[in-house]
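Prompt: Have a read of the protein record below and flag anything odd:
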Amino acid sequence: MKTIRLEDLEKSIASALQYVSHHHPPDYVRALKQAYIEEDNRYAKNAILQILINSKLSASAGRPICQDTGIAHVFLQIGMDVRFSSDAQPMPSLQEVADNAVIAAYTHPDNPLRATTVGEPLGARKNTGNNAPAVLHITMCRGDALRVTVSAKGGGATSRPGLPC
């Protein structure tokens, strides 16, 4: 049975959220480069070029690709032979771990990200100021591995009904 410290999981999630704020996925960049090569319309070609330039600048400077840094989604695929440990007592829930990671990522002093999450969407709609809570998706599977995927859904991405995991 594999044991994973919740403190390590929290740091990994926070680090991944910072990373996705300033890096496009490699397959997306490759597809844009190919689209740029194949595009005939000069206006469309220029628009693609601007996206590619912005993507490169964002990655090299470690600054967000877009001012809308999204609502944090954390996907955990947990093997049935995984157990968690923590120095904290009582041991925090996975939701608390994800929320603390979001707070750490979105309030990082070197690269704070824009908080857009409201605490009670059907109530007062007050911004939490730290982008918590995370939207946590948990899938149980066979084995002793933990797979973590993060996504910052913003800029209209919440209009899509789902993402493959």
